[in-house]
Amino acid sequence: MVPISFEFYPPKTDEQRAQLDRTVARLRAFAPEYVSCTFGAGGSTLSYTSETVRHLQQDLGLEAAPHLSCVGGTREEIRELLKLYRAIGCRRIVALRGDLPSGMGHPGDLRYAAELVALIRAEHGDRFRIEVAAYPEVHPQAEDALADLRHFKAKVEAGADGAITQYFYNADAYFRFVDDARRAGVDVPIVPGIMPISNFTQLRRFSEACGAEIPRWIGKRMQALGDDVAAVREFAADVVAGLCRRLVEGGAPALHFYTLNLARPTEAVLRRLA
Ligand code: FAD
């Protein structure tokens, strides 16, 4: 198997914190290379992210990588967070632009993730390994696929060491994207982001917003299985495990799982890959 990593979101309530701890306790059995924690643009989950990263890194002894997004923040706020993450002992950052919640005023000092990568490199040298986002099915705001690839390349030229993709269910989109990136001279590892399927209705809504395509045949099969929870889980895990197998056979260097702080859907996929 290739190395794996898990992504969590920062819990806000005691109940959510306990759930994250239970999930981590189960998933760490799969020996992740690192775990990451998402960041809410505009400050709302700012302190939750750093607190969760501290907990994962120092209390639970995992290598924790904070996501850091630059929209809505000032250079000073970003500098403070980087200082904090250094003090906590982090060696890896997932650097993003983020999305401003609609109606939020100030766009922030940095416009694109490439500027954030440049800032981290300029001020912290090689202290952090920097991962950036990549979009095999094209970022929804990109002018077109080629412009999106150029912007991805700019993040690597600014100093990113690797990329994690938006999730997708079409392996060919990933392989084509990697081929295009290599032809464009981008040689960093491009790790597929894997979204195990737990709540299909929620996934469909989420996918529309972030530009990920759910193949029609998956939707149709899910619909046919209806309320048969066991059959839906079985099918979902088979589909995602099949995708992972294809990706690894085709050369994916690692797999990054979007866990949504749930253990079962990710576990079901990983057991099938063992
Ligand atoms: P960028 O790379 O800056 O690109 C954003 C858009 O601008 C793209 O369409 C790109 O083509 C375009 N662009 C880039 N540079 C230029 C330029 N110079 N001129 C014109 N156009 C340009 N969001 C969060 O809020 N918190 C998280 O924790 C989080 N984690 C994520 C983790 C992963 C692995 C991924 C794939 C996404 C994550 N996101 C997160 C979502 C991400 O923030 C959004 O997709 C956001 O819209 C784009 O972020 P980016 O870093 O890809 O932006």
In short:
By secondary structure, the protein is an alpha/beta fold. The protein is built from 10 helices and 8 strands.
Overview of the structural elements:
The protein contains ten helices and eight strands. It has 274 residues and is α/β, with parallel strands linked by helices. The protein has a single domain, classed as TIM Barrel. It has an eight-stranded parallel β-barrel, surrounded by four helices. Strand 3, helix 3 (75-88) and strand 4 form a beta-alpha-beta unit. Helix 9 crosses helix 10. The longest helix has 21 residues, at 229-249. The termini are close together. The model has no long low-confidence stretch (mean pLDDT 95). The structure holds flavin-adenine dinucleotide. Its cofactor is FAD. It is an enzyme of class 1 (oxidoreductase). It catalyses: (6S)-5-methyl-5,6,7,8-tetrahydrofolate + NAD(+) = (6R)-5,10-methylene-5,6,7,8-tetrahydrofolate + NADH + H(+).
